[in-house]
TrEMBL record:
TM regions (residue ranges): 6-25, 110-129, 135-155, 186-204, 210-227, 239-259
Cofactor(s) annotated in UniProt: Mg(2+)
The entry's keywords: Membrane, Transferase, Transmembrane, Transmembrane helix
Entry's localization field: Membrane
GO biological process per UniProt: terpenoid biosynthetic process; ubiquinone biosynthetic process
PROSITE patterns: UBIA
Pathway: Secondary metabolite biosynthesis; terpenoid biosynthesis
Protein name, per record: Diterpenoid pyrone biosynthesis cluster protein C
């Protein structure tokens, strides 16, 4: 028997909490990154005027501000069911150490993806689904997590092209430097991987055709357009696609998911009604 679909109220509340938590923790991640990179940022044209890099804010004040950000993130986290604490706290290690990756590997974007995609796992226990006892949910969570990692690496590779010359001079490693002459091929591979894993997550979760057409198909089209049109030699163009491309692809994926959720909810409600429309007794 299929799992009952979560109520609109629980989905809406959970989504609002995740949005708030993501906003707060993204800010904390940026502050931590600026603290680690305070001696590197002055050598990169785009980042040289960041508050800590230019000396407008001391590292100590940055640490204090980070503490408040993390406390705010914790305040959001405790609103979720208790198991979410066990899933959420380990992500802090990735958020904290990500900036170090660019010093030792050409693939720091992969570490960023591991950190920023963590919500894909937490969404299941947030709705009361035990991943350890539900193999289908575990498969869906793993595929969704991996899909989002591919997405993060894809977008951050475009982002990294804005600083490619300065990064090379400053000794900062990135996937853009490693694959400078094969970037669009790599981006294409990441896009295909992202959509394939998103589809696999949908299959494991029992998604309907609206999800596959809207979310997966929409993502494939929007990513394809972005990869074709982005001018990797233009800082301004890379920035435009980094900012807007994220909303475009994220938007079609979200709309497809929402439409599929509404469709499945209506079908479930209909199946629980008698032929004359009266609700069956529980």
């Amino acid at each position: 028997m299929a799992e009952p679909i979560a109520s609109f109220a629980s989905v809406a509340t959970t989504a609002a909490l995740f949005f708030s938590g993501a906003l707060i923790m993204r800010g904390a991640g940026c502050t931590i990154n600026d603290l680690w990179d305070r001696n590197l940022d002055p050598h990169v044209r785009r980042t040289r005027l960041r508050p800590i890099a230019r000396g407008a804010i001391t590292p100590f004040k940055g640490i204090v501000f980070t503490g408040f950000q993390l406390l705010a993130g914790l305040a959001v986290l405790v609103q979720f069911p208790l198991p979410c604490l066990a899933y959420g706290i380990p992500s802090l290690a990735l958020v904290t150490t990500y900036p170090l990756a660019k010093r030792v590997t050409y693939y720091p974007q992969a570490v960023l993806g591991l950190a920023f995609s963590w919500g894909a796992i937490m969404g299941f226990p947030a709705l009361g689904i035990d991943l350890l006892s539900n193999s289908a949910a575990l498969t869906a969570a793993a595929c969704l997590y991996a899909s989002n990692i591919s997405w993060v690496v894809l977008y951050d590779m475009i982002y990294a092209h804005m600083d490619i010359k300065d990064d090379a001079n400053a000794g900062i490693k990135s996937i853009a430097l490693k694959h400078e002459h094969q970037t669009k091929q790599v981006l294409t591979g990441l896009a295909v991987t992202q959509v394939a894993l998103l589809g696999a997550a949908g299959m494991a979760a029992g998604a309907g055709p609206i999800f596959f057409l809207g979310s997966c198909g929409g993502a494939l089209v929007t990513l394809g357009i972005m990869i074709k049109r982005v001018n990797l030699k233009s800082v301004k163009n890379c920035w435009w696609w980094f900012v807007n491309g994220c909303w475009i692809t994220g938007g079609v994926v979200s709309i497809g998911m929402a439409a599929d959720y509404i469709s499945r909810s209506l079908k479930e409600a209909e199946s629980q009604s008698t032929p004359d429309g009266r609700e069956l007794d529980a």
